[in-house]
Amino acid sequence: MVLVRSVGSAALLIAGGPLLAQSAAITESDSAFSFTMNGSTMRVTRSGPSCPSSCIQPMRAAAGVETFGELEVIDFLQNPVSDGSGLLIDVRMPATFSAGSVPGAVNVPVRTFRPDNPYRSDLLSALGVQTAESSPGFAKAFTLVIFGSGPDDADATAVIGHLLDAGYPAGKIGYYRGGAARWSALGLNTEVGQ
Amino acid sequence: MTQAGTHQGYIRMALMGTAFIGLTVVLIVFQPGSSRQAQVSIVSDTVDTSVTRDAARLDDLNAVTAQAEEAAPKTRQVTPVNQDPPGTDGQRPAVTADHQPTNLRDMTFSAISQVKSATTGQAPAPGQPGSLLHSVVQRSMSTDAPAAGQPTPPRSEPLHAATGADDSPGSRTYQVRTGDTLVGIAEALYGDANMSTHLFMNNTEIMPRPDSLKPGMVLTLPAPVATTSGN
User: Fold this and answer.
1) Complex ipTM, two decimals?
2) Is A101 part of the contact surface with chain B (CB cutoff 8 Å)?
3) Whole-prediction pTM
4) By the 8 A CB rule, do A139 and A168 touch?
C-alpha cells in the first residue's frame, strides 16, 4: 500500500512537472518536439489549450483529400454549392453552429457520422449515396467540404475518416482546416441561426 | 286552525328563503373554486421558470465543442422517459445504449432535414425519403422481407423513389406495427394516401374490413398506381 502510494506520488510529480510549466500536448502522441540547428538543440512546445480536446491537425486529413483555405472555400460556395453539387458541412454541435457559422454551411454533427449511429445510412442517402449499406453508389453523391471549430479540432478529420471508411470517394471530400475559428479571425462574416 | 296552518307555511317559506340567500352570499364571498385556480396558475409559473433555466444551462454546456461529448450523457439522464423509437433500435441495443439513441436520432434527422432543405429547398415531409417515418418503414421492410431480393428504392429522389421505382407486384411485404394505419403506411411507402385503398384491396384475404389492421399482420404490397391526388 505504501509502495503504491509512493509510486503514485512519483508519477504525479513527473506528470505534474510539465503541467506546472504550462506545456500542453501538441498532437495525440507528442507534447513537445526538439530539433538541432547548427548544433544547438531547440524545442517546440505549446501553452494554453491541451491536446485531448484540441489536438493540432495535419495539413492533409487523408490521402487524396484536398485541403481548402478561405478563398478556396468561397470558390467552392460560388460554384459547386451554388449549382447544387456540393455541400459545406459544419461538424460542430448544433448549439455552437446556431451561434454562427460560415454562410451556406450545413450542420451535420460529428456524432451522426460515426459507424455506430443506426441512422447513418439515412444520412448518407441524404448526401446522395445510393443504398448505403450493401452496394453504395457514389456517382450522385455531393462533393463535401468538411470543417470544425478550427485547425485543432479533431472532429473534422474524424468525420473525413468515417466518410472514407463508408466508401465515400476521397476525391469528393475536401477539408477546410481553418474551420470556424480561422474564418471569423480573418474578419469574414458568419450567418447566425441558419 | 287553518289560520295557524297558513302562518306556519309563511314562516317556513321565510326561513328557507333566508337560508337560501345566506348560502348564496357565503358562496359569492368565499368562492371555493377560485383559490384552486390560483394554485394551478402558480404551479404552471414555476414549471415555466424551470424550463427556461434548463435551456440556458444547455447553451453553456455546448459552448465548447469538446464539452459537448461530456454533456451528452447528462442530457440522457434528464430525458430517460422519452418515447422509445418504435422497434428500430431493438436490433442493436448494445451498441446504441451508450450513445442515447433518441438524442442521436433527433440529431441525425435534424441534420438530414438541413441537408435536404439545403439541396432541394424544402425539408422532407413525414413519410417521404429522408424522414424518420420513411426510415422506420424501410428498416422494417428490409428486416421482414430480406428474401424478396428486391432492391430498396433509391432514397435520394423524393416522391419518384416511392412511387415509380419498383414495378414488381406482390413480391414485397410489410409487417404492421403498433400505431400503424392504412393511410399512414400508404403515405410512407408510396407517398400517396390514396394508395391505402389499393393496399386494402390487395389484402382482403387477411383483412375483412379496412379498419381490421392489427400489429404483426403481413401486408402484401400492391404495385404503385398513379392516383388522382395532387400531392
Assistant:
1) 0.72
2) no
3) 0.50
4) no
